[in-house]
């Protein structure tokens, strides 16, 4: 049985999990939190990083400098409408996003949030495991593989699953340390 499709699907789940974690505001300025914000640019929803220069000059500051000054107000509105929880500061040329220091309560909320996201990623990986085992059982039912091969496939799929869940736990642990130590 070929496990490459299973491995690829599980790796995609980990990549999606990592991207979601990047969007979480952990006290430091991270341009990734702007990834999900789209600005209506001449009728087309456009990501901020495709219409402006986004830089991080200090640990707690993001500066957005649009290439077309006329969209400055639109970018500001899109940031206000998003759920990132930061008020933009518009000086007519650039938008500054200042990140406040995280308090202990907010850090604990963030840790709960990343644990929830980690659990969702684990559930996705377990669903992929279930699909793989169901596929192996169907092959065994159709006499394409023997019962011993089925047991071997189930064991191998479980090993792949365990490895990927361990990877999610490692990423979660690193992000938890980052949040609590900022």
Described by strand count, sense and barrel closure, the largest sheet is:
4 strands, antiparallel
User: What's the overall average pLDDT, rounded?
Assistant: 84
The total strand number stands at 6
> What are the low-pLDDT stretches, counting only 5+ consecutive residues below 50?
none
The percent of residues in helical segments reads: 55-70%
> Kindly, what is the distance between the CA atoms of the first and last residues, rounded to a whole number of angstroms?
46 Å
Strand composition percent: 15-25%
Overall geometric form: elongated
| Count, helices | 4
Spatial order of strands in the largest sheet:
3-4-6-5
Radius of gyration: 22 Å
Determine the structural class based on helices, strands and strand pairing.
alpha+beta
Write the layout of secondary structure elements.
Layout: H1 4-22, E1 38-41, E2 44-47, E3 52-58, E4 61-66, H2 72-81, E5 88-90, E6 95-98, H3 104-141, H4 147-181
Antiparallel strand pairs: 1-2, 3-4, 4-6, 5-6
Helix pairs in contact: 1-3, 1-4, 3-4
